[in-house]
Amino acid sequence: xxxxxxxxxxxxxxxxxxxxxxxxxxxxxxxxxxxxxxxxxxxxxxxxxxxxxxxxxxxxxxxxxxxxxxxxxxxxxxxxxxxxxxxxxxxxxxxxxxxxxxxxxxxxxxxxxxx
Length: 115
Ligand SMILES: [Zn+2]
Ligand SMILES: [Zn+2]
Hints:
The protein is built from 2 helices and 7 strands.
């Protein structure tokens, strides 16, 4: 016989542990923390500071302490064949914020109102 081990930390499972079982891949865990840690590792979950949200998702912006979806609807450039709009910068006009996106192929710029 072989010991059953925790999928995440590899400890041998015993009756003193808070044993969890994952049905979809038939794996045992020694604790709920190991379940969570394994999930985080497997699915590439990363911690994000609110002000850096654009670094992980180019269509999210940080404004007044909160995170918003950009109003951009489609990131494919309508001027060239297969360009993609990439976030360039924020500007403010008459107290309204706008995002500037720039095509990575032809340089075409679009202005998206942040309301
Ligand atoms: Zn474990
Ligand atoms: Zn373009």
